[in-house]
Amino acid sequence: MRAEYENVLDDHLGKIHFTYVNTWDELLPAHWHEHLEIIYVLGGEITASINDVSYELEKGDIFLVNSNDIHYTYTHEDARYYLLQIPPVHLERISAKWKGLKFQELIRSKSADACVQGEQLENVQGKGLVEMRENRKSTNRADDLYDQLRDVFRKIAGFYEEKKEGYHLLVLSAVYRLLYFLYTEGIRSEEDTENAHGTLRDLERMKLCMEFVREHYGERISLADAAGLLAITPEHFCRLFRKYTGQTFLAYVNQIRMEHFHTDLLETDKNITFLLDKNGITNYKGFLRKFKEAYGESPKEVRRKQLGKKQE
Predict the structure, then answer these.
(1) What is the pLDDT of residues 97-132, one digit of tens each?
(2) Can you give the three-state secondary structure of 99-164, one letter per residue?
(3) Cα gap 43→78, rounded to integer Å
(4) What tens digit of pLDDT does each residue of 253-271 get?
(5) Which of 218, 217, 209, 212 is nearest to 242 (CA)?
(6) What's the distance, Cα to Cα, between the start and end of the chain in Å?
(7) What is the pLDDT of residues 294-307, one digit of tens each?
């Protein structure tokens, strides 16, 4: 799990990343990447946030994160979903202006809620009847888009499961079919795009701050340092940071440090005190308590189990 600007692993010959995820009560902290990210929720509940807008995702929902948007997710209990990440090499084939395209972020079937029965239409007169018919057409288009995207996800999952000779070509064909549906039916209007999220200036500020944490997490970092970097007051910075990341600045920095500490713990044989210092952790007791809450075991136990797996 990476934070800030995320380098997505393209583990497929077509430079596509697709995986099945099953998590419990896990926070993936705020980050961004150039890839278009799409989640198809199979079960459980997920809180997802893009820039300054949050969504509550449930089984069956399809959720999109546009290129370079700041996002984070929190999975509740037993959350299961397919994750698809499509890199710029494919996105730039949609349009020469692909970076300016913004797709709908939440796509779900609404026919059960919005369907208007024929006998109800017969009782509506004049302009109201026309408006209701137009609304029904819009709902049908949304349902069609949802059905098409859902079917593409199921096909991609099947290709990955079977992994027949040349399956990567089938995956690519399915991905381009998905992009076609998004391009023709899933693009937000210019007005919706302009009104959907916070200002570009604030987004760039947050990215600058997260990059700063990524580069200096092993050092002492204060709230005043971060606010000064953006040339705003600490009070304004705190409000802005929480708005876009869902965390306080201190909680965010500590989580980044914990993730780097956990990686070092598994990939090196350095002693734990050395790794705590290396990752900028000074409150040993408080950190070790948080680590156990996050990973279920102490650092020593986590390392011991990892060594046991390698020996097997």
Answers:
(1) 888 889 999 999 765 444 334 344 344 444 454 454
(2) HHCCECCEECCCHHHHCCCHHHHHCCCHHHHHHHHHHHHHHHHHHHHHHHHHHHHHHHHHHHHHCC
(3) 7
(4) 999 999 999 999 999 999 9
(5) 209
(6) 25
(7) 888 999 999 998 88
